[in-house]
């Protein structure tokens, strides 16, 4: 672990969001490597325009083919999604949900 390092990308994400670039941050609820609570906490502290509105927003259910697949919250171009029954490799654990997630984000439905 002596070679581990941390790089705070918040300033770059904040800049991109303030320029109108959309961001989707997602985590599997079973991920013990990068747990969803950490992703949620980071998402709540980036400091972009609209951060307060995002942070205070409530989670909404996210369904795929009529099945509850996760929950999300968003404000303008920033979305945080918790994917149910997925670990660190969400696309491998939930391929159908992953495709739906990307399509919904591209279509601005998420």
TrEMBL record:
<dbReference type="GO" id="GO:0004185">
    <property type="term" value="F:serine-type carboxypeptidase activity"/>
</dbReference>
<dbReference type="GO" id="GO:0006508">
    <property type="term" value="P:proteolysis"/>
</dbReference>
<dbReference type="Pfam" id="PF00450">
    <property type="entry name" value="Peptidase_S10"/>
</dbReference>
<protein>
    <recommendedName>
        <fullName>Serine carboxypeptidase</fullName>
    </recommendedName>
</protein>
<comment type="similarity">
    <text>Belongs to the peptidase S10 family.</text>
</comment>
<dbReference type="InterPro" id="IPR029058">
    <property type="entry name" value="AB_hydrolase_fold"/>
</dbReference>
<dbReference type="InterPro" id="IPR001563">
    <property type="entry name" value="Peptidase_S10"/>
</dbReference>
């Amino acid at each position: 672990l002596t070679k581990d390092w941390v790089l705070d990308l918040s300033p770059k994400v904040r800049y991109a969001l303030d320029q109108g670039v959309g961001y989707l941050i997602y985590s599997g609820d079973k991920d013990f490597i990068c747990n969803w609570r950490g992703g949620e906490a980071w998402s709540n502290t980036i400091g972009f325009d609209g951060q307060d509105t995002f942070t205070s927003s409530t989670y909404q259910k996210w369904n795929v083919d009529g099945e509850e697949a996760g929950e999300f919250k968003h404000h303008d171009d920033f979305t945080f999604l918790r994917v149910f029954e997925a670990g660190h490799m969400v696309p491998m654990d939930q391929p159908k949900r992953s495709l739906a997630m990307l399509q919904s984000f591209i279509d601005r439905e998420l």
